[in-house]
Automatic annotation (TrEMBL):
CDD domains given in the database record: TM_ABC_iron-siderophores_like
Subcellular location: Cell membrane
Keyword Transmembrane helix recorded: yes
Topology within the bilayer: Multi-pass membrane protein
Keyword annotations of the record: Cell membrane, Membrane, Transmembrane, Transmembrane helix, Transport
Transmembrane segments: 21-41, 71-91, 103-124, 130-149, 161-181, 206-224, 245-270, 290-309, 321-338
Family: Belongs to the binding-protein-dependent transport system permease family. FecCD subfamily.
Annotated protein name in UniProt: Iron ABC transporter permease
Amino acid sequence: MLTQRRPPQRSVLASTNATRSVWLVGLFVLLLLLCALSVTVGTRDVDWGDILAGVQGKVDSIGQAAVNVRIPRTVLAVLAGGGLALAGAIMQGVTRNPLADPGILGVNMGASLAVVISVAWFDISSAEAFIWVAVAGAGSAAVFVYTIGSLGRGGATPLKLALAGAATSVAFASMVIAVVLPRNDIAGGIQSWQIGGVGGATFERILPVLPFLAAGFIISLLSARKLNSLALGDDLAAGLGERVALTRAVAAFGAVLLCGATTAVCGPIGFLGLVVPHLCRLLIGVDYRWLLPFSALGGACLLLVADVLGRLIARPAELDVGIVTAFFGAPFFIWAVRRQRVREL
């Protein structure tokens, strides 16, 4: 009797990885197209001659100057979107919480509170100091939320972490208002920054944050295999030789660097770290070796789209990306809660 032989598993995996590679290249091409769109589209119509001249650094006309301003804005949107989405994927893996997000877990608001206090009470004004303070605030908030969520029976469950993060975000937001209210001299600037946006970006503002973002990207991407082990459960991961606590701490540190640095330069931008990893899971699955780079590219694309839409919706004014992301992020959060029912990953 003849038996039908199964194809070797290796060929199936290769086919799957080949498909993912095609999707990854396609996402990168989409990112390049969106960068071109971000440079060419804005609150002011600019002809192609001024666009080409502006890209080359010329500022002889208003149109060329407008294009010249859009270039660093586009670069910042790519870095911020990629960093926040990657941080969201890392936090979901570290906490095994499908609703984890730098905004929902209070990390962004912790960075915001630290920056506001440093400005209002210590008169800190340098970009480098803002970054260090924001990273410290993000890290402190992450530790605080995880500690609160770990109290009681069952340890740090997804539901307890989500509730602790939401309560912490509300408390920190109230503290920000309390710090800013007596200071009319800084209230306007702080309130504008609190919305979250990439407008007014310059390469002088971007350069100080690059080392922090680079370190965060590298640490986060190198944590992919270990996050796959954590997804199997702490006991099984430990049985496979993983140092669970150290793995969580290192991966979380990469996410904190990304959140703190991004918040320092852009302000708190919510929901991006929640939406993008979920969409990427629907596309390529739960393997973090693929999910993390997909999330980074997807976050950059989504923030670019939000920025372009913000310029077009309110012409001749514009909406900051923090407002635009909230419009589609809040309904997605409600859908995710109903669908996932706060299960572990």
